[in-house]
Amino acid sequence: MKFYNRETELELLRLQEDRMNNSSRMTVIIGRRRIGKTRLIIKSLDQNRDIYLFAARKSEQLLCEEFAEEVRSKGIPVFGKIHKFKDLFELLLNASKQNAFTLVIDEFQEFYSINPSVFSEMQNLWDRYRDKSRLNLILSGSIYTMMKQIFENAKEPLFGRADEKIYLNAFNVDTLKMIMADNNPKYTARDLLSFYIFTGGVAKYVEILTEKNALTYTKMRNEFFKANSYFLEEGKNILIEEFGKDYATYFSILSLIASSKTSRTEMESVLGKNIGGYLDKLDKQYSIIKKVKPIMAKPGSRTQKYLIHDNFLNFWFRFIFKYKSAVEIQNFEYLRKIVDRDFDMYSGKILEKYFIEKLSSQNKYSEIGTYWEKGNLNEIDIVAIDQLNKTVLFVDIKLQKKKINLEILKIKSQKLLHHFNGYRFEYKGFSMENIEG
Predict the structure, then answer these.
(1) Are 103 and 150 in a shared domain?
(2) Are 152 and 159 in contact (CB under 8 A)?
(3) What is the pLDDT of residues 124-145, one digit of tens each?
(4) Which residue among 27, 122, 335, 411 is least enclosed by CB atoms within 10 Å?
(5) For the chain, how many helices (H) and strands (E)?
């Protein structure tokens, strides 16, 4: 698949490369697995000069032997055997005094398992050599919690050392449309929404479906639910290491959220225990869920729900983890029927998220959210506030245009109007027919 988007990130990486001629630079790239970090980095590299090292989980001595071979292949002399990463890192800092180059260390958080003292050793060397060397250091990692700990915890040695940080996100809806148009020019609105739902804009999943020409709803569904599908174990593969021994509880919570049990009370009634600490970690530490309150809610309001950020993970917990018994016996025909039965109802909620993202990309609104009252009463799908031009947009979202009712929307909005004296109000309905707009 050709390279899409990431112009902003590439420009930042190129700027860092230019700046290394004055002194060494450190850039940190953080993003979930499969998001496209490695491909972005490789796209920015000079393959003849720059050095790419992958921090596999093995002994420091073995890793350094592999690293030394790669360094030698780039024309940098390494004499004798190097058993400690700090010695190799110092060698590279010294080498960059003569000829500036980029050094990439991918999956950098793995040094926690290899030798955690590497972080303090690197900090010491970086502080000593930064101003007199010309190394463009790129440190990339996919275990979100570990990377945040390494670079954003004030007690950690590498805190404050990064010159730039890139948080690599999924492809946005406009990029997904571009990919779909390039590879399936006759796509339908349902195909595009399905692409958004199944992949969540995650580069690896987009690439798999594109290369297999699975770009209609039916083909995507079949690619997910078949023997040896890449996607069946993917949720476990990317999250178990994050969660550790408590993964079963976290998985149960995420499965409930994906199945529309989004309040803490609902979840605790099913699980039979207090989950406040787990929810807090999923939100603030792992950044997998977000806590959402009705727009214009008072700061102390306890009316709130939890949503999963990642469309792919939401789908995985709703249709794969929930029916793991059917997955284990490989009853894929049954699973495909479940998805067919529930997909319209499920996709209706994701359509709301799609349009919120579209409105956000217009850079027109100061705040965008949803509104509901206790018990999910008087629900308004989107409320978008433009403080500059003093307008509020209320939106009703339905899969089918004929089900949109703007008169009911106006009635639902009445309890919010007093917040907006002097504002102009707009009422619109969005459906699958507007997905291209």
Answers:
(1) yes
(2) yes
(3) 999 999 999 999 999 999 888 8
(4) 411
(5) 19, 11
Kindly state whether residues 86 and 143 are assigned to the same domain.
yes
Cα–Cα distances (Å) from 286 to 19, 152, 180, 281, 302, in that order, read 33, 14, 31, 6, 22
Q: What confidence score (pLDDT) does residue 71 get?
A: 97
Same domain, 314 and 382: no
- pTM (2 d.p.): 0.92
In terms of Cα–Cα distance, which of 410, 408, 39, 343 is closest to 198?
343
The pLDDT score that the predictor gives to residue 422 is 96
Same domain, 406 and 271: no
Find the CATH number of the domain harbouring 279.
Answer: 1.10.10
Residue 375 has pLDDT above 90, yes or no: no
Which pLDDT band holds residue 13 (cuts at 50, 70, 90)?
Answer: very high
* Number of structural domains the chain divides into: 3
- Asked if residue 378 and residue 325 are part of one domain, the reply reads no
Give the span between the Cα atoms of 333 and 226, in whole angstroms.
Answer: 9
Q: State the Cα–Cα distance between residues 110 and 141, nearest whole angstrom.
A: 8
Q: Are 113 and 60 a contacting pair, CB within 8 Å?
A: no
Contact 135, 93 (CB under 8 A): yes
Q: Please, are residues 285 and 147 in contact by the beta-carbon 8 Å criterion?
A: no
Domain that holds residue 286: 234-329
Both 369 and 322 in one domain: the answer is no
User: Rounded to whole angstroms, how far apart are CA atoms 422 and 402?
Assistant: 32
Residues 6+ apart with CB under 8 A from 425: 391, 392, 394, 413, 417
What span, in angstroms and rounded, lies between the C-alpha atoms of 265 and 76?
A: 60
Instruction: Write down the residue that tokens 């018994």 correspond to.
Output: 325
Do 277 and 378 lie in one domain? The reply is: no
> CA–CA separation, 134 vs 101, rounded Å?
7
- The string of pLDDT tens digits covering residues 218-260 is 999 999 999 999 999 999 999 998 898 889 999 999 999 999 9
Q: DSSP of 64-75, one letter per residue?
A: HHHHHHHHHHTT
Distance, CA of 241 to CA of 46 (rounded, Å): 33
